[in-house]
C-alpha cells in the first residue's frame, strides 16, 4: 500500500512535492520495523532533500524526518549521527512549536533515550524530567 501511495503521489504531484516526501517517510518507517535499514536510510534522505526544498529546514515535518533518521542511527549503533539529528530536530521544534508543545516533549524524550543508552544518565534524566513536565501540562 505504501508503494501504491508513492506511485499515486508521484503521478499526481511529482517527485518534488511534500506529499510525495511524506509517502517516502511512511515507507521508510515500515522498513525500520522490518530491519531494512539501508532502504530506510535512502528513503529518509530522499524525503529530507525534498522537504528541504519545498518546506524549508525549519519546518516541523522536516524535523520529523530528522527524528526518524536519528532513530535509525540509534538502532544501528551510530550514536554520533543519532545525536546530531536529534539535536537538529529538537532545535527546529523548539523554534517553530515552542517549549510547551507535545512534539517538543517527544524530542526531549527521544534524546534522553539516546543519552541513557550511551550512559550519559545525568543528561538523560534532565531531558526525561523536562519532557514529563511538558506532558503533564
How does this model look, in words?
- The protein is mainly alpha-helical.
- It is 83% helix and 0% strand.
- The longest helix has 19 residues, at 79-97.
Task: Give a brief rundown of this model.
The protein has 137 residues and is mainly alpha-helical. The chain has seven helices and no strands.
Strand content: under 5%
Structural classification: mainly alpha
Mean of all residue-level pLDDT scores: 97
Give the uncertain stretches in residue-range form. none
Number of helices: 7
Topology as H/E string? Answer: HHHHHHH
Number of strands: 0
**Cα separation of the termini:** 37 Å
Outline type: globular
- Main sheet specs: none
Write down the Rg.
15 Å
| Helicity range | over 70%
Layout of helices and strands, plus pairs?
Blueprint: H1 2-13, H2 18-34, H3 37-54, H4 60-75, H5 79-97, H6 102-117, H7 121-136
Helix pairs in contact: 1-2, 2-3, 3-4, 4-5, 5-6, 6-7
Keywords:
137 residues; mainly alpha
Amino acid at each position: 500500500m505504501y508503494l501504491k501511495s508513492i506511485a499515486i503521489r508521484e503521478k499526481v504531484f511529482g517527485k518534488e512535492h511534500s506529499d510525495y516526501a511524506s509517502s517516502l517517510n511512511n515507507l521508510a518507517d515500515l522498513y525500520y520495523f522490518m530491519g531494512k535499514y539501508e532502504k530506510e536510510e535512502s528513503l529518509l534522505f530522499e524525503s529530507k532533500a525534498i522537504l528541504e526544498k519545498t518546506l524549508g529546514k525549519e519546518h516541523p515535518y522536516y524535523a520529523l524526518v530528522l527524528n526518524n533518521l536519528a532513530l535509525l542511527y540509534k538502532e544501528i549503533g551510530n550514536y554520533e549521527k543519532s545525536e546530531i539529528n536529534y539535536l537538529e530536530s529538537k532545535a527546529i521544534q523548539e523554534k517553530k512549536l515552542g517549549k510547551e508543545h507535545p512534539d517538543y516533549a517527544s524530542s526531549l524524550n527521544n534524546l534522553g533515550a539516546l543519552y541513557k543508552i550511551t550512559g550519559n544518565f545525568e543528561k538523560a534524566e534532565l531531558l526525561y524530567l523536562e519532557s514529563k513536565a511538558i506532558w503533564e501540562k
